[in-house]
Specification:
- The complex is a heterodimer of chains A (272) and B (358).
- Chain A starts with 7 loop residues before the first strand and ends in a 5-residue tail after the last helix.
- The longest helix of chain A is centred in the middle third of the chain and has 19 residues.
- Chain A is globular.
- In chain A, 36% of the residues lie in helices and 24% in strands.
- Chain B has a domain of 229 residues.
- Chain B has 358 residues and is mainly alpha-helical.
- The model of chain B has no long low-confidence stretch (mean pLDDT 86).
- Classes of the chains: A alpha/beta (272), B mainly alpha (358).
- Chain A: It comes from Jannaschia seosinensis.
């Protein structure tokens, strides 16, 4: 395994850097079931990396391994040039990995603003006493982080619902708020688990636009799982294809599209 | 027509994040504080101070404490009575062991001791949730009451097993014991309540509060955005117990003066505080006050109406009180799970638009 250290510029002018995340020979079992079988791939800085595959292929499990929910039985996760020891999910988050969920995981009892402010937790370190007295660092941090949160809110165009409790929002907006919360953390790696699931065409276009803009403006490295082939092929720089826990394809959208094994997995193949 | 945000512009994030964003609310709050601190102590008589105001203030602290744990952090606790007992007995031990210590320090230290005990009993919350955690805190309740009953060191080997508060002065005014003036006691409680409510509000609107609410709303998502569940839950237990401990200390030193642990801090007390929080509104500072006021006021009003006005026997009215409280709990759980605080919030939302709601 040799990690990429060179960087290059894409046709549309973005810079793709060295390896951010390197997964080496990951195997994940649940009892007797092998959800992920000996998979290796890497994610490079500044790219949009898609993980695709039919239902039950192990895509979400893969994301859960990256974000620390599942601990693989075999294999290594290398993050920013260092082998990652076994970690709790919150420690992974503190390292700079943010994610969204397939079925929205927002804090329903809080306002949009508070939800997005939650993304900044890693940047706020004042202790309980100063916070209770609203004094010095606590008050300062609150204002400083509010500024960066407002930038994200502007960027995703959710200013109007800033003070609305999340429970009252429609589905499409909730997805956007969840993206805002993840973005507020200014992550080194952003994981999106089916960001367009359950959306209509218009909402999908909006979301695709936001994902591209995030990548373009902030240079955020993004790994996403998506079912909509058209969207994936348009958005991503490189694609990993999974089927039954195995990796059956890896490369640019064009390479993957012409890969016979991938076509078989998606269209089915006649067994004789 | 007065209740408007029009014209009340915010030019900084600090101004936007303040507790009372509307000018009208801010003024109302200061007027209320001025009334409570400058007018009430001079007009109130002993009966009203002892039957209503002092218990209201003390219960409000306990309700704030439980609201932090249950309303903000989502951890159910039935051990409030036990933790109040810890506060009461620590203040007693402190007052008798260090007679020179002033009452402010005694009260704060009792809170800190209770915070430590709460931290200990909060440890199971890392593994268990919901009903199971409630049962674990119930164990704390029974264990603590048993401890204060059975270990004579806690009540200084007194023959009756009771503890009674020695006389202490603050700024030359008698604060505890039979000779204390109720206006002085009221002011002492009021000062502590204001300080603690402000403290609680600051915590809940900042980072700590967001961590607590994140754990409450969805603990898995909280962990994925970087909340350490261990620290968030334990800090909620500690802070909550700190409040409850102070409330227990005041309950003993100021309100009752002499305490027997079973009758003062039994399981009924835990439920009473829980009812205050549920009726008042989970996850709301105002709700803690509303709930405490409601449940302190209810028996007094029922007695006034039932016994004095209608001439019913006292026992009937006492039973009626249980029925009313039980009915209200069910009513609020079904109709308005966020309690009086939510009703207040809805009223304010309507008021902003009144009288032209479209």
């Amino acid at each position: 395994m040799n990690a990429h250290t060179d960087s290059f510029t894409t046709d549309d002018g973005r810079t793709i850097g060295g390896t951010v995340l390197d997964l080496r020979n990951i195997t994940l079992r649940f009892g007797g079931v092998e959800a992920i079988k000996n998979i290796s791939f890497d994610i490079r800085e500044g790219e949009i990396r898609a993980i695709i595959g039919p239902n039950g292929a192990g895509k979400s499990s893969m994301l859960n391994v990256i974000s620390g929910f599942y601990v693989p039985q075999e294999g290594e996760v290398w993050f920013r040039g260092e082998k990652r020891p076994q970690m709790r999910p919150y420690q992974v988050a503190q390292q700079g990995v943010a994610r969204t969920f397939q079925n929205i995981a927002l804090f329903e009892g809080m306002s949009v603003l508070d939800n997005v402010m939650c993304g900044r937790l890693g940047y706020m370190s004042s202790n309980i006493l100063t916070q209770g007295l609203w004094w010095g660092r606590a008050a300062r941090e609150e204002t400083e982080n509010r500024e960066s949160v407002e930038r994200v809110i502007d960027f995703l165009e959710i200013q109007a619902i800033r003070k609305t409790p999340v429970g009252r929002l429609p589905y499409g907006l909730k997805k956007r708020v969840e993206l805002a919360r993840a973005l507020a953390a200014e992550p080194k790696l952003l994981l999106l688990d089916e960001p367009m699931a359950g959306m209509n065409v218009e909402e999908k276009e909006d979301m695709s636009r936001f994902i591209l803009d995030v990548n373009d403006e902030f240079g955020t490295t993004i790994a996403l799982i998506e079912h909509d082939m058209g969207v994936v092929m348009d958005l991503s720089d490189r694609v990993v294809v999974m089927d039954y826990g195995r990796k059956i394809g890896d490369g640019t959208p064009d390479e993957v599209r012409s890969n016979q094994e991938v076509i078989d997995a998606y269209l089915g193949v006649a067994h004789d | 027509m007065l209740y408007r945000e029009a014209g009340d512009f915010k030019t900084s994030y600090a101004a936007d994040a303040q507790t009372f964003p509307l000018a009208f609310d801010r003024w109302g709050y200061w007027v209320l504080l001025a009334l409570a601190a400058l007018v009430v102590p001079f007009v109130v008589n002993d009966y009203w101070a002892n039957a209503l105001l002092i218990p209201f203030l003390i219960y409000a602290i306990a309700a704030l404490g439980l609201n932090i744990l249950t309303g903000y952090c989502g951890q159910v606790s039935l051990g409030t009575g036990g933790f109040m007992a810890v506060g009461a007995y620590s203040s007693y031990k402190l007052m008798t062991a260090f007679p020179w210590m002033d009452m402010v320090s005694v009260t704060l230290l009792s809170g800190l001791v209770t915070a430590g005990v709460g931290l200990l009993f909060g440890l199971p919350s890392l593994r268990i949730k919901g009903f199971y955690l409630a049962v674990a805190t119930l164990a704390a309740q029974f264990f603590l009451v048993w401890l204060f009953n059975r270990v004579p060191w806690f009540y200084n080997y007194s023959a009756s097993g009771q503890i009674s508060a020695p006389e202490r002065e603050l700024f030359g005014l008698v604060l505890t014991g039979p000779n204390a003036a109720s206006a002085v006691q009221y002011l002492f409680c009021l000062a502590i309540v204001i300080a603690l409510a402000w403290f609680a509000r600051n915590l809940t609107r900042g980072t700590v509060g967001r961590k607590w609410m994140a754990i409450r709303d969805m603990d898995i998502a909280a962990e994925i955005i970087g909340v350490n569940p261990l620290r968030a839950k334990l800090s909620a237990f500690a802070i909550s117990s700190f409040f409850v401990g102070i409330s227990g200390a005041l309950f003993f030193t100021i309100y009752l003066g002499a305490v027997e642990v079973n009758s003062a801090f039994g399981i009924q007390k835990s439920f009473l505080i829980l009812f205050m929080v549920i009726i008042g509104g989970l996850g709301s500072i105002f709700g803690s006050f509303a709930g405490a006021a409601f449940l302190v006021l209810l028996p007094v009003v029922l007695k006034l109406v039932g016994v004095d006005l209608l001439g019913w026997p006292t026992t009937i009215v006492a039973h009626l009180q249980l029925v009313v409280v039980g009915g209200l709990i069910i009513f609020f759980l079904v109709v308005e799970p966020h309690g009086l605080a939510q009703l207040w919030r809805l009223t304010k939302e309507k008021l902003r638009l009144w009288p032209f709601p479209h």
